[in-house]
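Discussion board: Methods & Data

I've been asked by a reviewer to show the raw model output for two of the constructs in my manuscript, not just the figures. I'm not sure how much to include, so I'm pasting the format here to get opinions. Each protein appears as its amino acid sequence followed by a line of discrete structure tokens. Is this the kind of thing reviewers expect to see in a supplement, or should I convert it first? Here is construct A:
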Amino acid sequence: MTIKIKTADELEKMRHAGHLAAQVLDYIAPRVEPGISTGELNQIIHDYMVNTLEVIPATLNYHGFPASSCISINQVVCHGIPDFAKKLKKGDIVNIDVTVIKDGYHGDTSMMFCVGETKPFAERLCTVARECLWLGIEQVKPNNTLYEVARAIQTHAEANHFSVVREYCGHGIGAEFHEDPQVLHYAAEELKEIILQPGMVFTIEPMINLGRPEIKLLSDSWTVVTKDRKLSAQWEHTLAVTDTGYEIFTLRQGETPFLPNS
């Protein structure tokens, strides 16, 4: 495993890319409403990325992925393919995941949206998944390990009777979309060997399921769903380890830490 330590110049480029990625989510947020299709949302995202922000949509044609965003509804865990025939309905929960490339560096982030009025258990899942992200982030500081990050996430999810997806995880990021290390969201022993150092940059993106953790890959070779077809929720940020803790590159406008009872 080779974990790249970013230079000050690289960190500045990643800071800028992350800020632009966050702008995409801020821009699309008011358009996530009942009746709009995921294909329309993706088209709006693509046009905003390319024409307004002048960035490259990292997911488009990445290993053959056909869209500029991943849009995952309800039981879809991740990598949902936008579709003009798939319209959002009142009560849906939806994750929109975007990654931009600017000046050769990536910014990667996602968030959940509740479409119209949702069931309390669905809203609760989205809330706890967001808390899991932030509890993981709070463990990021020099000389901690990725084990502390994962343990904080898993402990909170399971205390709320939810489960953590194991097959998909966060990742190092920089000039490459996916770099070392793999950022698991459950407390695997091997994570104790990955000691955090200033200049490391990675994503934390826990996928939290309402039911069991098992997942299934659909025949399109991209869409991942919960095996029991119960809901899943995910939030994601790109962040760097600093001398004193962490710096999040993908904070949205007005976003502050989202911790339990905060």
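Construct B, same format:
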Amino acid sequence: MLFSDRLTIDQPFRAQLRRAKLDKVSAVLACTGDRLAAWSRSSDTIWCRMPKGSSSVYIKRYHFPRWRQRFRGFFRGTFFKASRARNEYRTLLLMRQLGIHAVRPIAFGERRVAHFLRSCFLITEAVPDAMSLSSFIRVFSHRCHGPKAIRVRREILTSLARQIRRMHESGFVHRDLFWRNVLIRSLPDGLFEFHFLDASVGKRIRMQQWRQDSIVRDIAAMGVLAPEFCTKAEQLRFLQAYLETDRLRAEDRRWLREVQRHSTSLRESELRRLARGSVFNPPIWESAGAQS
């Protein structure tokens, strides 16, 4: 059977991946890593510590072992077009070029059989001491209470709203902006920073009307888990910070109702997905958490 491999590595990381023996498609597909970070029926994500240093990477792999899966991918365009891993590699590079805080893509690879996609993967640089925002909710709710909890929630929501607004102002829409796809990291000054990931369907849209529909979905995805983390008043402050206004106008309220409608429709499926397991949770957060 005719196999063909493709591997693209960002120049600064070639020597590092070679030392880690991750400079071949077959080696990446066979790698077991140091820790399993996420798993589904068609994908897995592993965390790997790099040799001779404290840096680490995440490898997200997509597998299509059966021919019916490969034919399904054919009709979705993977036969003639890029794989999901290649799309996300390009999208993350674009986000970073636009000044958006996105995880750094290191490499992507594809294995094809008779040009049908068999497997693909994306390697990204790990953000030290970061965890997914969806998992942060669970840690935070057990570790931080009282006035400090209120202050921390407001800081997180305001900073996140402003960062998402800057992303949208650049013309980019993520289109899968759930809390599991946002990493949060605590800074020494008590503030927080965020990094976006899993942006394979994101793109830069220049037409304002077309972009607006995707913006509604982005904000709606942000609202899916909001009730588990903050009050309705704090959710409103998030929207005000995003809209850069102290008082919602009539058109803002109409927009908000559309966001809420989409958020409700997305909630059930997202909760089911999160129930299958958490993602991107370095062990340090298990002990440090949100310091109270």
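Answer (T.O., handling editor elsewhere):
This is acceptable in a supplement if you add a one-line summary per construct. For B, something like: Residues 3-125 form a domain with the Phosphorylase Kinase; domain 1 fold (CATH 3.30.200).
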